[in-house]
Amino acid sequence: MGDYSPRVMGRDLIFYEFSRCKVEAGDFVGFLTRFAPESLPTGQRLEKLMDALVFCVEGYDEDEREIHAIPEVRSFYRKFHETWPYWLYFCNLDQDVLKTMILCCMESFVALKKDDQPDVKVEFEPLELLHFISRDFAPMNAMCERAGMSEEQIEQRTRAVFEYFNLPYNAEPARSEGPAASSTMTIPEILKELEPYTGRFPMQAMRAAIAQREAITPELLRVVEAVAQNPVEFAERESYMLHLFAMHLLAQFREKRAYRPLVKMFSAPGETPFDLAGDTVTEGLHSLLASVYDGDPAPLQGLVEGENINEYVRYAAIDTFIVLVESNQMSREGVVAYFRSLFQGKLKRTHSHAWNGLVCAIVDLPAPELLEEVRQAYRDDLVDQGFARLEGIERDLSHPDRRRRERFAIITDAIAEMEWWAAFQPDDVKPSGQLPVAPPAPVPTSAVPAPRLQGVKVGRNEPCPCGSGKKYKKCCGKN
Question: Can you tell me whether residue 38 is helix, strand or coil?
């Protein structure tokens, strides 16, 4: 048996088996070569694949634990779901496999086993389950649209999903996530709604854009290409938001044609990347770039190595390589080799924030084989000890914690990525012209902030904690 084993079951089902070695390596590249979104058919050929896949993992028959309780399997399915969130469309609802897969992705469940009964009854928190599958309706609807299915057919599939999980069905919310919401909005109307910053999240327009993926993608590409050609001009436009929504939607769509325009956009020197995207540069650019990556690392390497590139963009580009490993778009060995080449001269050996990013990336990957190169970088004063202390790097490399890699994921839900930004909350009133600021990400444990930061990572547009009254990027964060 090979690493992956697709087999036709009867006439309609495809049984797809992942070997234990691939599960524990988190490797499903072989599956993606056949079923990545860009490789899938359209129309009736895609419609025939609905409800057709049955997944399983092999090699755990001797393990007494339930499959959803095995950490390696849980980690594999979580990573698989982040990369390929189309389970509700493709998975067969006559089998219990989908329930097991989703249980692996959930935090709250209780397994109960009764005496003299071989089966284990699993109970989970209904609200957590509902939240999980609700987020997956957008990818499901995107596949339905691509297959040319009618609104009635999509509603039937939605109802079938609710029944599969024994959840009450509410037709209105289900339809509002997909084509029904789009029926009242044209492409020009969607773009008009997404263009200005109004202080509220444009939920209807975003849902409509997702439902009309194929029609709106060329327009979104035109937006990011225009900004990439004239980044300074667009940075000076007050309250302009269309490019931010476009970037996140194209990331959800895994649109590879957006990769090079995004790289060009964020290659703009100075503060222009922050004027265009605010704290998205530090909080989400790595996921955006990895989500649209076209297979050529050269443009990304150019961001990392470019001495005229904003140093926070360079840091984000380094982190992008970790997302590419996590999403099976690059091998770990290939990224380790590239990081080694940065230590060996591709990254100019003068102090910069890019060096801070590189040593933290060694921990996040993790790449303990590069520890000596990290130590030499500290001896050469290339890394800011106030940002990441060597003893913290050494400690974290000796005791890797996979949880620190959870933020290195591609974007599968643009709405979920953006709707919780502070700028879109009712009580958060922003002055006209100020771009929304994404909530700050947690600081890596090895990245020990200077004492004045009090253990919290400060957004570049937030007030400096030193008390000067200036923005952090104009004060202590300037260098």
Answer: helix
Burial class of residue 45, CB neighbours in 10 A (0-12, 13-18, 19+) = exposed
**CA distance linking residue 177 with residue 173, whole number of Å:** 7
- Rounded CA-CA distance 396/24 in Å is 21
User: Coil, strand, or helix at residue 219?
Assistant: helix
CB 72 within 8 Å of CB 23? yes
455: left (phi over 0), alpha (psi -120 to 50) or beta: left
Tokens for 148, please give them. 């040319």
Determine the pLDDT at residue 338.
97
Tell me which residue of 83, 125, 77, 132 sits closest to 101, measured CA to CA. 77
Task: Specify whether the CB–CB gap between 110 and 122 falls below 8 A.
Answer: yes
Compute the distance between CA of residue 373 and CA of residue 376 in angstroms, rounded to an integer: 5
DSSP secondary structure string, 223-236? HHHHHHHSHHHHHT
β 53-57/13-18 pair status: parallel
Residue type, 136: D
What letter represents residue 130's amino acid?
A: L
Q: Show the tokens assigned to 140.
A: 């499901």
For residue 291, the number of C-alpha atoms closer than 13 Å in the C-beta half-sphere is 27
**How far is C-alpha 148 from the chain's CA centre?**
27
pLDDT in tens, 48-101: 999 999 998 999 988 888 888 888 999 899 889 988 999 999 999 998 899 989
Write the pLDDT tens digit of every residue in 248-291. 999 999 999 999 999 999 999 999 999 999 999 999 999 999 99
Q: Work out the angle between the directed axes of helices 332-341 and 311-326 (0-180°, nearest 10).
A: 150
As a whole number of angstroms, the longest Cα–Cα distance in the chain is 72
Q: Give yes or no for residue 433 having a pLDDT over 70.
A: no
> What is the rounded distance in angstroms from the CA atom of residue 81 to the CA atom of residue 26?
12
CA 247, CA 192: separation in Å to the nearest integer? 16
What is the DSSP track for 291-327? HT--S--HHHHHHHH-TTS-HHHHHHHHHHHHHHHHT
Provide the pLDDT for residue 442: 41
Let me know: does 365 contact 332? Beta carbons within 8 Å. yes
What are 360's two structure tokens? 């933290």
Closest CA to 423 of 182, 196, 193: 196
394 contacts 371 by C-beta, under 8 angstroms: yes
Strand ranges across the sheet with 4-9: 4-9, 13-18, 53-57
